Amino acid sequence: MTFGFFRLHIIGTELNERITTMAIAANLITYLVGTMHLPSTTATKIATNYAGISFLLCLFGGVITDTFLGKFRAITIFSMIQLLGTILLSLATKIPRFRLMECNTDTVPTYKCPQATEFHMGIFFTSLYIKSIGMAGVKSAVIGFGLDQFDIKNKDEKAQLGVFYNKFLIAISIGTILAVTVVVYIQDNNGWNWMFRLCSITGFLAILAFLSGSRKYRYKENSGSPILQILQVIVASLRKRKLEPVLDPDLLYENADSDLTSRINHSNQFQCLDKAAMKTNGDFESNRLTPNPWRLCSVTRVEEVKMVIRLLPIWAATILFWTIHTQMVTFSVLQAATMDRSLGKFTVPAGSLIVFLVVAMQLTCIIYDRLIIPIRKKWGKQGFTNLQKMAIGLFFSIITMIVASTLEMYRLSVYREHFTPGSTDTVPLTVFFLTPHLILMGIGEAFMLTGQLDFFITQSPKGMKASSTALFLSTLAFGCFGNSLLITIVQKATAGKDGHEGWLAETINQGRLDYFYGLLAILCFINFGLYLLCSYWFKVHTSEISPQQQESVVQEASLEETNL
């Protein structure tokens, strides 16, 4: 069986999403500082809040897709919304009325230029969030729609599923690299308007390519929203909170029509939720054989919710990693903008420095797959478990922040040695001086990303894998929000009453970003200890699950692990 050219159309949709999203994410901070003339800390908080909201929108996009639209219609509609957003961004950066007048930063420091008005900010961010809504809808549906094109009961198609997943990940990598190199370079040399024009063209072509395969796609009916199912269990248990618990699990309700192989046996953890499966008068409406799902849920449904709850401590312990990751793609860009970015006659865009993080992540995945796993197999061991991978990622976050703090301390010393405070001259250090901590962050991300995906997919019930993926994406969202909160706290705690700006000043050369990175290193160390406790708790409680429940949790996991 051939791979199917029409399946590449689906991958092309994700490729376009990555190009447009990452091109904006990589250089948004420089636009806010260099074009809208906002203080660096304000710009950083705006950029990270935008990223956080975008990832949270993926949750709502998933609910709308699963409950109402279906994957094909969701991809089509949200792709058009994303295209509309990029067209509006192109107009917002082209029409003089909608954009801020230019300020000559060669003669006037950026922080003394007039800042963007509420009108300019409103136009730009309205367009930006329209694009973000489209991105969230596409992202929540595209991978699931791609997997729908394969029949896992067919051996040939099941083998091709792994090929699709690998091509999908390659598309994400290629899209990211193109965004932070080619597209950012075009923006840096020709302006933001040209970048958004290019994104609009690629978006239009991606929609045409996706729709051209509509006759060959396979369409599956919606299975319902997993989030809605979780809410039903919670509501049903709260309604019966005053009832005495049932001592015999056999007395709890189970759907007699369900497949025996998909049932999950009762567990003793979180017994307050068991009340959702206790039968009472009024649970079955008149002339209906099935119960009201907001009053009575099956044991299997309750146990699925318990499984999701078991994931939450690990979920919480991994949020700080993505807070650190956000620092790398915001403050590192600001640092790069102050340094020597020349490479012969070529000037490296500040936002393109992120390519070192992306390449390091990809090389780490290749080395792990081609070198580390074969070596461990020779020792009679398999690859690292998902919990071990996440632990390695958290460990690298500590090292990353220590190195970043040390490098920033040296950069500031060079600046103070050559210039007086307030100078906007270029620090006589090559921009590639910043690459060590970006490479370390990329290595850590390789382990954290694959570990989290593997963990949330294989440790969740089969019917809730969509929500478990959304749960993973929410760690990225809360990591962005955590970054903004941390910046606000540090600003207020370190700013002096005499007008001293503290560690995070309006211009990066006037602050002490090295102290801030040092604080993050300490927080990462504490978080690493908490993660080890959470992972131990998780292993203890999952070891108490019955063999039947473990089988339900890990079914098809081997295929997912191979793909990851």
TrEMBL record:
Principal location listed in the UniProt entry: membrane
GO CC terms: membrane
Family: Belongs to the major facilitator superfamily. Proton-dependent oligopeptide transporter (POT/PTR) (TC 2.A.17) family.
Keyword set, alphabetical order: Membrane, Transmembrane, Transmembrane helix
Topology versus the membrane: Multi-pass membrane protein
Keyword Signal attributed: no
Gene3D superfamilies from the UniProt entry: MFS general substrate transporter like domains (1.20.1250.20)
Species lineage: Eukaryota, Viridiplantae, Streptophyta, Embryophyta, Tracheophyta
Protein's organism: Kingdonia uniflora
Transmembrane segments: 20-38, 50-69, 75-92, 168-186, 192-211, 311-334, 346-368, 389-407, 427-449, 470-495, 515-538
Alphabetized GO MF terms: transmembrane transporter activity
Subcellular location per the Swiss-Prot or TrEMBL entry: Membrane
Record-given protein name: Uncharacterized protein
A Pfam family annotated for this UniProt entry: PTR2
